Each structure stands twice: as C-alpha cells, then as structure tokens.
Amino acid sequence: MLNRINTALGAEYFLKSIVRNNSSRSFIMLSPIVKYNNSYLLDISDDNSIFYSGLDFRVRYHVGADSWQGFYHFKYITLSDEESKVYLAQVQSFISKQKNPDGMVAYYTLQSLSKGYNYVFLTIWKQQSDFANWRKSSDYEQLKYYESEFQVTPVDALYTVNEFINIKG
Which of 85, 98, 112, 162 keeps 20 to 30 A from 91, CA to CA? Predict the structure, then answer.
C-alpha cells in the first residue's frame, strides 16, 4: 500500500528536468484540463520528497484499483481540527460502501505532511464524463457540504495523464 504521495506543480519542461535528475523514482506527469494551469508531477515512489514545494501528502485512505490511468480530480480543502474529524468520518462512510461509483478507478484521501489541516480528495476516473455524472449523484452530496460550508473558495483541479515514468506493475 502506498503511504505517501509527493507532488510538484510547474511548467512541463521544468518538471521533466526533475524527472531526468531522479531516474530511480516513479512519476506520473499530468496535463491540466484548463489550458493555462500548470502541469502536475506526482512522485509515487513512497519515499521522502525531492521537491521543495511542500505539497507532500500522507495517504489516509485509499479504495479502488492501484491503476493510475484515467481522468484526475483533485479537491483541496482546509479544515479545523473539529471539521477534520467530521470530514474524515464522512470519508469513512463513503469508502465503506460496497461499490465505487460507476467509472471511478480509485479514491485517495491525502493529508498534508507540512500542514495537517490541509487535505486533498483525489479521485481517478475512467472518463471525464464519469466524474461529471458522479458530481450530480446523491453519493456526492454528503461530500459537497465541504465545498460550501467550510471553504471560501474550494480549489478544484482537473488533469489527464500525460506520461508514466518508471511505474512498476
């Protein structure tokens, strides 16, 4: 089981130089859906970070396949200690369901290693349309609460896979 995901945002040419200088690592290069957003590099080597960004996360929960192929949705949220307890209970309820929503490949709850009150809700989907359908479903409603209640401006980021580097399995 993966315990840690380290990430970096930036121009693709810059992120590719990081990849070249760290050939023993397992990376996933993601391209943004929104044209002017940065590329996103995931280091899934389960090792200490090589990045200076501070966007390093502990995997709190994971359900689904270990496949990294698909459409990525990142939801960034910041919670107080009390809000965090409620949120993690909701996540526990969501992942305890017998079946993932149609088209969902994997789900991760990530907690920031540098700022424990920051979380990322990462879902990977077969297709972007599967994600769009889930956003309209009742399953999404219990998590949608965190978009409006606790967040002044919740951050959504949408990406697709550009390249796999040294992925095992």
Answer: 162
